[in-house]
């Protein structure tokens, strides 16, 4: 494991701006406080992982520079009402908790502004956070479709307690 370090003021402004762009204005402040730490790539020296209290909250997706939230990052976004939301039915709840794919027929509601490859927050009908994932197709298309993959779940919160 690489060494964690304090981000420069420029780095902190940059990652906050990316979070604001991706998840909504103000998300950067919520995700990345002054005690944020980063881990850099050995080769490029670019930020790869972002931590709070030694827990990873985000990583950078190399191909496009988007932030990928961890479960902790997803919970923070959900709790503060940031990010694209996908609400699934109760049939899919245990599967998403286990990190399984979300199919279009299980989606009850989804933000219309979601595009393919956007990172999303997955919740159940009660508004409980279940996991994070990547949209495979647009939100509008997911609403129209009755079958097929909608969201590739990146990580679920695990079994219900």
Describe this structure in words.
- The chain has 2 domains: 4-75, ArcTGT, C2 domain (Nuclear Transport Factor 2, Chain: A, Roll); 83-156, Roll (Archaeosine Trna-guanine Transglycosylase, Chain: A, domain 4), CATH 2.30.130.10.
- The chain is α+β, with helices and mostly antiparallel strands and 161 residues long.
- It has a 6-stranded mixed beta sheet with strand order 7-11-10-9-6-8. A 5-stranded antiparallel beta sheet has the order 1-2-3-4-5.
- The chain contains 5 helices and 11 strands, in the order βααββββαβαββββαβ.
- The mean pLDDT is 92.
- A hairpin with a 5-residue loop joins strand 9 and strand 10 (129-135).
Would you spell out the secondary-structure blueprint of this structure?
Elements: E1 4-5, H1 9-23, H2 27-31, E2 37-40, E3 47-52, E4 55-60, E5 67-69, H3 71-79, E6 84-88, H4 93-97, E7 102-103, E8 107-110, E9 119-123, E10 129-135, H5 139-144, E11 149-156
- Give the tally of β-strands: 11
CATH H-level superfamily of the largest domain = PUA domain
**Percent helix among the residues?**
10-25%
- Taking all residues together, what is the mean pLDDT? 92
Which structural class should the secondary elements be placed in?
Answer: alpha+beta
Strand content of the residues, in percent?
A: 25-35%
What would you say about this model in short?
The protein is of the alpha+beta class and 161 residues long. The protein has helices at residues 9-23, 27-31, 71-79, 93-97, 139-144, and strands spanning 4-5, 37-40, 47-52, 55-60, 67-69, 84-88, 102-103, 107-110, 119-123, 129-135, 149-156.
């Amino acid at each position: 494991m690489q060494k964690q370090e304090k981000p420069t003021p420029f780095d902190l402004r940059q990652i906050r701006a990316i979070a604001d762009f991706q998840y909504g204005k103000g998300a950067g402040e919520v995700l990345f406080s002054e005690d944020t730490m980063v881990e850099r790539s050995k080769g490029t020296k670019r930020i790869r992982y972002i931590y709070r209290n030694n827990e990873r909250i985000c990583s950078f997706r190399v191909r496009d520079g988007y932030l990928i939230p961890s479960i902790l990052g997803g919970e923070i976004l959900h709790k503060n009402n940031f990010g694209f939301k996908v609400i699934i039915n109760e049939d899919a709840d245990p599967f998403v908790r286990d990190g399984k794919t979300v199919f279009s027929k299980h989606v009850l509601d989804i933000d219309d502004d979601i595009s393919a490859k956007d990172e999303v927050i997955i919740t159940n009908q009660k508004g409980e956070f279940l996991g994070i994932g990547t949209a495979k197709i647009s939100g509008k298309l997911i609403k129209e479709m009755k079958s097929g993959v909608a969201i590739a779940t990146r990580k679920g919160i695990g079994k219900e307690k």
